[in-house]
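FAQ
Q: What does a multi-component entry look like?
A: The components come first, one per line:
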Amino acid sequence: MIGKEDVVKVLEKAVSLAKGFDLEVSLNAEDLSLTRFYENHIHQNLRRQDHVLTVRVIKDRKIGVAQANLLDDGSLRSAVMSALENAEVAGEEEDFPGLPKPQEIKEMASYVPATASYRPADRAEACGIVISMAKAKGLEAAGSFATVARETAVANTLGVRAYHASTEAFFRCIVQSGPNTGYADRLTRDVREITFEDVAREAIEKATLYPDAKDLPPGRYDTIFLEYALADLIRFLGMYSFGAEAKQQGRSFMASRMGQKVMGGNITIWDDGLDGRGLAVPFDSEGVPKKKVVLIDKGVAAGVVYDSRTAAKDGVKSTGHAGPSEGRFGPLPGNMFLAEGESTLDEMIANTSRGLLVTRFHYTHCPEPVRVIATGTTRDGTFLIEGGRIVARVKNLRFTESMVEAFSRVESISKSSRLTRDWWGTFSSVLPAVKIKEFTFTGATSF
Amino acid sequence: MIIELEKALGLAQKLGAEYADARYVTITQAPVSVSSDGAPKAAHYKSSGLGLRVLVDGAWGFAATPYLDPRSIEKVADEAVRIAAASARHKRGDGVSLSPLPPIRAKRQTPHKKDPLLVKAEDKVRLLKEVLDRAKKVPGVTRASASIMSYKEEKEFMSTDGRRVEQTSIHTGASLTVMARGTGDVQSRSFSDYQDAGYEFVESLDLAQKAETLGEEAVALLKAPVCPQGVTDLVMGGQMVALQIHESCGHPVELDRVLGQEATFAGTSFLTTDKKGNYRYGSPCVNIVADATAPGGLGTFGFDDEGVEAQRVDLVSEGVFVDYLTSRELAPRLGQESNGTMRAVGWNNIPLVRMTNINLEPGDWTLKEIIKDTKEGVFVETPKSWSLDDKRLNFHFGQEIAYEIKDGSLGKMLKNPAYTGVTPEFWGSCDAVAGKEKEEWHIWGTPGCAKGEPVQVIHVGHGAAPARFRKVRVGVGE
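Then the predicted structure of the entire assembly, as tokens:
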């Protein structure tokens, strides 16, 4: 950790170098420690500390960007000069509204000293719990355990000053039982909230339940998706549909259907970067405070998230969703929530005459972004439900399905949610489990 | 930086490391991009620092710092050793042992005429504007964007085995996307290619002509019928073959994946060690090599990040799977020595087994001959989406464009093509590979290969030519 005082000093120095132009400077500092294990032993273990300083210079409506990872005076000056030189060669940004003015930013307690000070020996001990429990049952465990401390800060020549410190702990494991695997993870700000024995038990149970995996032909099945799996399905909507840039360029179905019923009446999705149940950060990369944005309201297309540029284009205010250096996908919702329902997972299973339970997905992708047709394969525990109970493990299946249509067929939603991260690690969302009628599986695997 | 590297190694040994290697890396990038709905953008990124990897009691530790002052180096050595000591609590058997390497001193630099970082941003913007102008002239094009990559990696490596290597890699290339929007439909065509080369590579790409052609295709796709579902013969363009190699051969032959080291994120592999040398991966016309020495390849280098020389290795010979990509730690488990594929992104990541240039060797056909020889099928080109299971068996690939093939000729254009299959069956159905004409075989640069935790996105290459696959399921998902 650099510390707020020193971070502010660096940013003030950078801002003071702006003479005759506007400047925005952001600092993202990360102190990451990570332990990985497989075959019941640790094979990778690291700590890395770095900080990326991003300078954006605006001169005569022209924008130039530079990044550096050293924070001495010479590096700061060099970054500002590079950004200025790049602004000189850039064209005039007709739709750029200028840098944002200061707004009140909510203080959020996201930094947990216990997470930041977690030591290599602590991580080894935690991994050892899972390894020991797997070994005791003659199984093999693989996994990773990351503890991260971050500082994010933004300043600009119009007076924006924003600083936020946070921590994060992410523990995940896969337990292997013969050809079968089971998965569990925990994502939290506070490492003390992780009960490693529980994570191991969940993965072991998934790996050992019904060892003889059956072949199941592709087809349409009523399917229950655990939170891990739903994170991947909702990711597509976040990536391709809920950002203002995708809407403005006509790449999102929201462009032509705003205000219309697009999903089932039981679906409400919103983004809230200020809700501490998620990995909240109170401002975006422009230093604009995050606002709650309802994206789908009882099935109706209700809103998209904005940064300053896309907001100006639509004549609205930024919702505080600017990505780093105006990211390639434009503004995105990083803290999605799906409204809970009234079921329990057990009830969802009990109410399924024939269907599937999917734990999670692997390497999903989106061949058709406008219709949000997505594909991917299940992994680490896919089960057949018959007569209201789980009766068998099935070999992994490939789905190919429009997410807009799938979210129109959600039959039930669990009444509890959890913080979960998609396979890609793009978003961290707070999600329940859902059951979707007649979900389309188009292929099968041999394992 | 040699003094700092020596100091880091010395401190690590003093603190109990039986082996250590250190890298000082500086990465400088100057991306330039333009789009039809915004102003040209230019940026400059620089990142430098030192990464130290140590073996203590047979277990790994790694720490990295951007600073080179004595206190920072002492701290990084201390941390790396303490981390390794923690790893040793759950080490594998007797611990890690590395395949042997003699001491060496060597240097390598990308052969180039024009350093892309010295080419003025104005000149790059001018070139890209011409490209945009050509795309925008096509009636119906609603958006176009293009960019040029200029990337330099300067690296000094030193190990306690006496390996000392300095390398400078220069990577450059360009990408271009043209979009057309219709009622409820958006179609895009794109091109991208990158090389281990100077800016002369960008100048050779003829991007303006490509922009016009891609624009016409994007507009035409709006009115094209959807690729029908069915099982048919599939002819793939070179760029699509490159991605198929990447995903269904390059990743499954990474020995760390095979052994389970990447199970939690990237997955494992169907190519288990019992299959080495005896498993039919594809048809006899499938020959795949890993060639880190291929001129221009984005996966070309002099030495990997363990100090092992770049090599050319057979992976699949006449359809039979014969070898993996390995490291100094993992190769001995198969009774082998490393074939030099351990690479890290930047200074603050550990090296992992990574693809180099994974190339499908040229066949004895031309694309024209393949089409002429195909009674009924589909020709597809340019990847749009890719998805594989965690063992790299079942896959689904979407493409930007397709044409039907009827009686040996290309027919009407088709939109939203996709195909699906299972890796060994798919490569087993390959019965024709082009490349007889030299220009049809090309090493495509792929700068976005992701792997590891934390994720490292590395540059790799894939030599490929058009190829034909019999009886493939196409049109999936429509």
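Q: Is there any commentary attached?
A: Sometimes. For this entry: Residues 378 and 404 of chain B are 5 Å apart (CA to CA).
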